Amino acid sequence: EIDTLERDIARRSTLKASPDKEQLRALRRLALLYKEKFLYEKAIDSYTRALAVVETIHGSHEEQVTVLGELADALDVVACYDEAEPFVLRALSLRQKIYDELTTLESETINRMAVNLHDVGRHYLHSRNYEKAESYLEESIAFFQQAGTQDSQEAARAQVTRAKCLLALSQLDQ
């Protein structure tokens, strides 16, 4: 399937002067397949190309948040935390913009905000910035509570506990 997607993307690139949503979907699918095969550099490249496409076609904020989050996650997996940080923060900023523009908030919208906050907290947890991790994870818990997603609340609470423990251990080492 990877070869087929790569050929399709290359063909689309030569046939069209500008990228489109089909190319965006193909790049995201290709990146996911690379991730599943632990080919993270290729996944990061595909997500980076997908981000360029979504920005070129002026994709919705929702599409941009998704691609930014996927790229940040792939970078976090290979411990490229400094490179991942702007993407995870940009995704959160766009999510906040979406959230602020809505007049009625549905549970799914609130949950998506919680997920983005959780993603930022998880990023900081992985990059060993435990104080920031705790702050974002605590904020995500409040949104998960508002959305009524109990399992996500418990997962975030567990990560807050982990952040607190790791912070305490890091302070003992100093």
Task: Provide an overview of this structure.
The chain is mainly α and 174 residues long. The chain is 84% helix and 0% strand. The protein has 8 helices and no strands. Helix 2 runs antiparallel to helix 3, helix 4 runs antiparallel to helix 5 and helix 5 packs antiparallel against helix 6. The model has no long low-confidence stretch (mean pLDDT 90).
What is the topological layout?
Layout: H1 2-15, H2 21-36, H3 40-56, H4 61-77, H5 81-101, H6 107-126, H7 130-147, H8 150-173
Helix pairs in contact: 1-2, 2-3, 3-4, 4-5, 4-6, 5-6, 6-7, 7-8
Mean pLDDT: 90
* N- and C-termini, Cα separation: 50 Å
Q: What is the share of helical residues?
A: over 70%
How much strand?
A: under 5%
Strand/helix succession: HHHHHHHH
Q: Biggest sheet, open or closed, and with what strands and sense?
A: none
Radius of gyration: 18 Å
Number of strands: 0
Shape: globular
The assigned structural class equals mainly alpha
Number of helices: 8
Are there runs of 5+ residues with pLDDT below 50, and where? none
